[in-house]
Design brief:
155 residues; 0% strand; 9 helices; mainly alpha; globular
């Protein structure tokens, strides 16, 4: 949507919120509109209000996660994406946001990347120690371009 469309949407959300000032849906949608316009402080204020109004609304947590990520608060974004996933484990937007936040934190030296915690490293080591890839499979195009294969050589 163009800038004018977001402005029209904001006017509609303002009208809806005049009727029901603490309604989480319009607050969340207005937060998204402000985010798309680049008005991050206003977006965050609405997202905070949406979460306060309805803490069990996964979309409000995911929207706030997206806003926090845009503001550079990756740890806060990750916490909100994880809160959304506790409420709705298959929420694709929250899964994608969580994974992006984890990757960005890992690049920045954080410990939230998969396998970065002690428990994660143990799990990776355990799986690595029990998986055996025979030489014909090691040469498979499906495997050779995706990560490294420990102890396997291409045939």
């Amino acid at each position: 949507l163009g800038k004018g469309a977001w402005d029209a949407a904001l006017a509609d959300f303002d009208e809806a919120l005049k009727l029901k000032p603490n309604e989480s849906g319009p607050l969340n949608y207005r937060a998204t509109a402000y985010l798309r316009k680049g008005e991050l402080d206003r977006a965050l204020a609405d997202a905070d209000d949406a979460v306060r109004a309805r803490p069990d609304y996964p979309s409000a947590h995911a929207t706030r996660g997206e806003i926090l990520a845009a503001k550079g608060d990756l740890a806060g974004a990750l916490a909100d994406y994880e809160a959304a996933l506790k409420l709705s484990p298959d929420f694709a937007t929250a899964v994608e946001g969580r994974d992006k936040a984890r990757a960005a934190l890992a690049r920045a030296g954080g410990v939230s990347a998969p396998g970065a915690s002690a428990e994660g490293r143990r799990a990776v080591a355990e799986v690595t120690s029990i998986v055996v890839i025979t030489p014909p499979l090691a040469a498979s195009p499906l495997l050779t371009g995706h990560g490294r294969i420990i102890g396997a050589s291409a045939a």
